[in-house]
Amino acid sequence: MTISTVGSVVGRLVGWLSELMPDDDRRDALVAELSGRFGGSGAPVTAADCDAIARAAWPFSRHVALIFEPDGTSPADVVAGSWPPVAPEVIRGRAAFVSGVSRLDCGTGVVRIDGLDPIGLAQPYVDAAFGLFRGARRVVLDLRRNGGGEPATVAWIAGWLLGDRSVKLSDVVDRGSVRSWWTPERPRGTALLQDAYVLVGPGTFSSGEALAYHLQAHARVTVVGSTTPGAADHVLPIRLAPTVLAHVPHAHVVDAVTGANWEGTGVVPDVACPPGQALDTALALA
Predict the structure, then answer these.
(1) Same domain, yes or no, for 185 and 116?
(2) Secondary structure of the chain: what % helix, strand, coil (to 5)?
(3) Do 49 and 165 fall into the same domain?
(4) Most exposed residue of 94, 118, 131, 186, measured as fewest CB within 10 angstroms of its CB?
(5) Above 90 in pLDDT, residue 81?
(6) Does the residue 89 lie in any domain?
(7) Which whole-number Å values give the CA distances from 191 to 1, 5, 131, 186, in the listed order?
(8) pLDDT, tens digit, for every residue of 254-285?
(9) What is the C-alpha separation between 129 and 185, in angstroms, rounded?
(10) Per residue in 155-186, pLDDT tens?
(11) What are phi and psi of 192, to 5 degrees?
């Protein structure tokens, strides 16, 4: 097997970034940074190199990741890949990442959602969880372990808190298109109107951050915890070499209220505290 070098891996990464990302200053700065730092290296690529390349990219796109697979044999991609579907039985087995639902003695409803599976399978679990909060005094949405997932599921969950009428959340800007995301129209009187709190931290990532950011932008929730990592791009899995799989940005999010996003800055909490104290802090605020 031909040994891949750092320079060849970065060259392919830069090529994909140039092809997929919208043509703007951020893309150009990212390409220049990676090319300047790593493009001339003839050293065999290692796990440490993959980590260094990703970290160099993070000031421009926090989503960039390079995964080193020492036993990999598949050739580098020439066509952009897509995320493989998750088996329905896997999604049902984990209840679509709805990891905990409770009604506390103080009248607070708490739901923990650790990821965002496709809404076609996630909807029954999300609706069952939020449906239990009718009559609760307040709602707490725990996203401290939410690593992201489907934007349609972001919109569905946000709809439970933003009202019965459809509300625009965001535009996703790709190189050649824009897709808008809205909350769904709900049956009259079914959305939750109680005070709501969202818990965030370093484990809140990507579309998990999107959910917190959009709710905060609409002034619907109080965000409690610590600042999130700041990953607002959409990515595709692309193999750069037999031993290197990358997550390559191809689009970014623009919030409908702020006209911006959380890339690089993260979702900044309204009330800052260590993530482990976020629930107690939210309850104290309530």
Answers:
(1) yes
(2) 35, 25, 40
(3) no
(4) 131
(5) no
(6) no
(7) 58, 54, 9, 7
(8) 999 999 999 999 999 999 999 999 999 999 99
(9) 19
(10) 999 999 999 999 999 999 999 899 999 999 99
(11) -85, 130
What phi and psi, each to the nearest 5 degrees, are found at residue 13? Answer: -60, -45
Residue 1 has pLDDT above 60, yes or no: no
Predicted pLDDT of residue 133 = 97
Q: Which two three-digit tokens encode residue 71?
A: 């036993």
Instruction: Name the pTM for this structure.
Output: 0.96
Going by C-alpha positions, the residue among 266, 257, 236 that lies closest to residue 17 is: 236
Same domain flag for 62 and 163: no
* Joined tokens for residue 170: 């965001």
| CATH code of 187's domain | 3.90.226.10
| Beta-bridge partner residues of 233 | 252
Residue type, 254: V
Sequence-separated (6 or more) residues with CB below 8 Å from residue 171:
178, 179, 180, 181, 253, 254, 256
**Residue-wise pLDDT tens digits, 98-114:** 999 999 999 999 999 99
**Structure tokens, 174:** 């790709």
What crossing angle do the helices spanning 151-162 and 119-131 adopt, rounded to 10°? 20
CA dihedral 266, 272, 274, 275 (to 10 degrees): -60
pLDDT range class, residue 39, cuts 50, 70, 90: confident
Type of residue numbered 22:
P
Owning domain of residue 160: 94-230+266-285
SS3 99: strand
Shortest CA distance to 271 belongs to which of 206, 221, 215?
A: 221
- Distance (Å) of CA 70 to CA 1, 9, 47, 179: 12, 14, 8, 37
State phi, psi for 247 to the nearest 5 degrees: -105, 115
